[in-house]
């Protein structure tokens, strides 16, 4: 599960242009402004991200900067999103991904996936709007929210976004009134007990309810275009897909028996990068067994695409020394300028445990110590793993890591160990911060929810598609 650490190599944070035959990479900072393209000689995606992190923090002096200059910021590698798409195409050939915008509505991600031919799963008016503004045709959008706001539904009808899910009779009456030509996907209940975020306690018709729902749709002269399910976000049990595909087949059969001509199966989201290949194999086999090649299959992946593409760096704004005089031990509480009410909302909403790593310490910047070894409660040894003789023999310092708000639940890590002495003004970074993070950040206590994203692109193919 734990990813490899980013190479923090200060010398890559330059504007020099170096071409490497095999591994050409391009760093692009401040994409939104289009101002600066940095061709680095970085050799790997990790090095590129490290270079972009370093470049930003070296330009900021937290001890003397303007308000907000030391704010937390993201570095996003569009090459990683691109690679995930190629991997999807390889392992799930039959399935057209409709990226779940809710997971990370980053404009560059949307632009890249649109250029790659993906569709989009939108859950609200503003998500639909954002995707349409990117130039995506309404036929590539599914309004995958079984319980829709009426005014949003009117908007959807006006924009001709026809595909949408439903799972109850009240919604069918609503759709009949507002958008009778809609293409309806009956979302069914799944066993999502092995997922991180369970969704079926809120959405999904039970198989027992299907005859009534299809019967009412027939009576109202509505269009049943397909079946949808979601096995839960962060799913871990491939057999959930097996059962859901089998159930979906039975709904197709019932719909066809009533004279509907359903043409699309939507297998939802739930894919996780670490287990994707295995899940995809099980799903593909089930699809081939139950649905003919002519059947259109779509999915709604979210975290699979963006989780590993985003890294966040946070500044240490305060430190409290905690001394246990009886035991003669000292530890520190570190306060960062981002936390659970900000981009670390994933700790509360998405059951994540972000892993801290040292980006810069004054000690490091002075060039005295480039070995970093840090360890979370789980025992995972992070950062320059294997190169950390100094860490293993050295003394580990204990920290707890907190967000900037006044709330006691604003805790990022209760216990973290590092050989580094981390102090006010230093920077930590966290990988795997691209899913259900920025999108659910708040402005609680007056802290910003508008954190900058620096874009890098470790794949020439993605750079070309993005016109970088
Ligand atoms: N589709 C729907 C309807 C969802 O509710 C979600 C997540 O909540 C997703 C897709 C994306 O799920 P994931 O990020 O697990 O792929």
Report on this structure.
It contains 14 helices and 22 strands. By secondary structure, it is α/β, with parallel strands linked by helices. It has 2 domains: 10-78 and 307-466, Lyase, Ornithine Decarboxylase, Chain A, domain 1 (Beta Barrel), CATH 2.40.37.10; 79-306, TIM Barrel, CATH 3.20.20. Bound molecules: pyridoxal-5'-phosphate. Pyridoxal-5'-phosphate binds next to strand 11 and helix 10. Pyridoxal-5'-phosphate binds at residues 100, 103, 121, 144, 199, 230, 233-234, 268-271, 300-304.
Bound molecules: pyridoxal-5'-phosphate
Identify the CATH architecture of the largest domain. Answer: Beta Barrel
Count of helical stretches: 14
Q: What general outline do the C-alpha atoms trace?
A: elongated
Structural class computed from helices and strand pairing: alpha/beta
Distance between the termini: 32 Å
Main sheet overview: 12 strands, mixed
The CATH first-level class of the largest domain comes to Mainly Beta
How do the strands and helices of this protein lay out in sequence?
Elements: E1 26-29, E2 36-38, H1 45-58, E3 73-77, H2 78-91, E4 95-100, H3 107-115, E5 119-122, H4 125-133, E6 141-143, H5 150-159, E7 163-166, H6 169-178, E8 183-187, E9 195-197, H7 210-219, E10 223-228, E11 233-235, H8 238-257, E12 264-266, H9 276-290, E13 296-299, H10 303-306, E14 310-324, E15 329-336, H11 346-349, E16 357-360, H12 362-365, E17 374-376, E18 381-382, H13 389-393, E19 397-402, E20 411-418, E21 427-430, E22 453-457, H14 460-466
Parallel strand pairs: 3-22, 4-5, 4-13, 5-6, 6-7, 7-8, 8-10, 10-12, 12-13, 15-19
Antiparallel strand pairs: 1-2, 1-22, 3-14, 9-11, 14-15, 14-21, 16-21, 17-18, 17-20, 19-20
Helix pairs in contact: 2-3, 8-9
The structure holds pyridoxal-5'-phosphate (PLP).
Pyridoxal-5'-phosphate (PLP) is lined by residues 100, 103, 121, 144, 199, 230, 233-234, 268-271, 300-304.
């Amino acid at each position: 599960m734990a990813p490899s650490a980013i190479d923090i190599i200060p010398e890559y944070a330059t504007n020099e242009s170096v071409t490497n035959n095999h591994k050409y990479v391009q760093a692009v900072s401040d994409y939104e402004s289009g101002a600066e393209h940095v061709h680095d000689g970085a050799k790997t995606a990790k090095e590129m991200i490290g270079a972009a992190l370093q470049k930003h923090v070296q330009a900021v002096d937290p001890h003397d900067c303007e308000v907000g200059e030391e704010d937390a910021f993201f570095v996003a590698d569009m090459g990683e999103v691109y690679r995930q798409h190629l991997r999807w195409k390889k392992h799930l050939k039959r399935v057209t991904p409709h990226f779940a915008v809710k997971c990370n509505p980053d404009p560059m991600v949307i632009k890249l996936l649109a250029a790659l031919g993906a569709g989009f799963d939108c859950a609200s008016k503003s998500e639909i709007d954002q995707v349409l503004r990117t130039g995506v045709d309404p036929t590539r959008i599914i309004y995958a929210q079984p319980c829709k706001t009426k005014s949003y539904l009117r908007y959807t009808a006006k924009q001709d976004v026809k595909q949408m899910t439903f799972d109850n009779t009240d919604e069918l009456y609503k759709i009949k009134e507002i958008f009778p030509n809609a293409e309806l996907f009956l979302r069914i209940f799944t066993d999502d007990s092995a997922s991180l975020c369970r969704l079926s306690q809120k959405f999904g018709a039970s198989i027992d309810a299907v005859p009534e729902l299809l019967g009412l749709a027939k009576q109202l002269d509505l269009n049943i275009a397909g079946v949808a399910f979601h096995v839960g976000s962060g799913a871990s049990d491939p057999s959930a897909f097996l059962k859901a595909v089998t159930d979906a087949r039975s709904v197709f059969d019932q719909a066809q028996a009533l004279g509907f001509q359903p043409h699309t199966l939507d297998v939802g989201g739930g894919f996780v990068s670490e287990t994707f290949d295995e899940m995809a194999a099980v799903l593909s086999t089930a699809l081939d067994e139950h649905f003919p090649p002519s059947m259109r299959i779509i999915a709604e992946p979210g975290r699979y695409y963006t989780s590993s593409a985003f890294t966040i760096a946070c500044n240490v704004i305060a430190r409290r020394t905690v001394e246990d005089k009886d035991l003669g031990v000292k530890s520190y509480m570190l306060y960062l300028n981002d936390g659970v009410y900000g981009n670390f909302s994933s700790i509360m909403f998405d059951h994540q445990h972000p892993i801290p790593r040292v980006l810069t310490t004054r000690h490091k910047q002075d060039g005295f110590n480039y070995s970093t070894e840090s360890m979370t409660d789980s025992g995972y040894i992070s950062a320059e793993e294997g190169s950390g003789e100094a860490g293993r023999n050295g003394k580990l310092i204990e920290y707890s890591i907190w967000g900037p708000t006044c709330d006691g639940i604003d805790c990022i890590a209760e216990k973290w160990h590092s050989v580094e002495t981390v102090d006010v003004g230093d920077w930590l970074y966290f990988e795997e911060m691209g899913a259900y993070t920025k999108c659910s950040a708040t402005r609680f206590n007056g802290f910003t929810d508008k954190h900058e994203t620096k874009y890098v692109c470790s794949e020439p193919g993605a750079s070309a598609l993005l016109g970088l």
